[in-house]
Amino acid sequence: xxxxxxxxxxxxxxxxxxxxxxxxxxxxxxxxxxxxxxxxxxxxxxxxxxxxxxxxxxxxxxxxxxxxxxxxxxxxxxxxxxxxxxxxxxxxxxxxxxxxxxxxxxxxxxxxxxxxxxxxxxxxxxxxxxxxxxxxxxxxxxxxxxxxxxxxxxxxxxxxxxxxxxxxxxxxxxxxxxxxxxxxxxxxxxxxxxxxxxxxxxxxxxxxxxxxxxxxxxxxxxxxxxxxxxxxxxxxxxxxxxxxxxxxxxxxxxxxxxxxxxxxxxxxxxxxxxxxxxxxxxxxxxxxxxxxxxxxxxxxxxxxxxxxxxxxxxxxxxxxxxxxxxxxxxxxxxxxxxxxxxxxx
Length: 345
Known about the structure:
This protein is of the alpha+beta class. It has two domains: about 15-185, ph1033 like fold; about 215-325, Trna Endonuclease, Chain: A, domain 1. About 20% of the residues lie in helices and about 25% in strands. It is built from eight helices and 16 strands. It has helices at about 40-45, 90-95, 120-125, 125-140, 170-175, 180-185, 215-235, 280-290, and strands at about 15-20, 30, 55-60, 65-75, 80-85, 100-120, 150, 155-160, 165, 240-245, 255, 260-270, 290-295, 300, 305-310, 310-315. The longest helix has 21 residues, at about 215-235. It starts with 14 loop residues before the first strand and ends in a 30-residue tail after the last strand.
């Protein structure tokens, strides 16, 4: 079945919405390769288009209809099988068909949203959600496999489908999905400036993402340094012996008082953070040694890279849960056969 891959080539378009009444959310995506009529169905076929690292939002039909959580895709799609009973009026009268060929992809790291995006919340945003849909259709043609059904006759509701494509613009629009947006960012929550911002308006829209990789290394270092210096000053004023160890240890600051040594992991950001980047060394250290995590976000910076202000939060005895860590970078082993020369111009 031909699929309009309007998201192809845009790494920010990594979101999907599973619409289901399952009670085992976040285990997998799985759907038959054909519908009851023996034909391919786009919302089933889309399972074969997800990629490792994509984020799947989960809409439940059980109880209050809402987007309640999210998971990460961890495998390429593969052929599988399932015993399928469709949910439509015809499907309810159709006897189970036994095992059928299916598309499947494994999910991990299911997390509930702090605040579910309920149907009522989304209906309050209906004019703006409709505008996103209309803009995408103008830019990319139809179908776009939109997650919501919108019409002049009925209020917004989830599409009558299994898997739908969830545009990044909706993730930016819906406040309850902010934590998902920052989780998916290459460097969560960092602003982009100048040519480093990849704006969606290049494809015909005035909307642009404020989340992406911060290429200005000086600016990033200034923010990080300011956060560490704030922490050092705070603990010195409290009577601790303080040592900045970030250049040689897996944590940033060691403080000692009354014979008790504490290790501090410090993160700084110019925007509001719901997710942070951590290295494998930082994670391993926090797993083995009691560590306090201190995050100072919303730091102000002027044109001379002078920082001020910031909101403080801290977590004592911080130990990150590996199942909730999202990969944002990979180490690639170079294959043999690289040509020892500059590419021919």
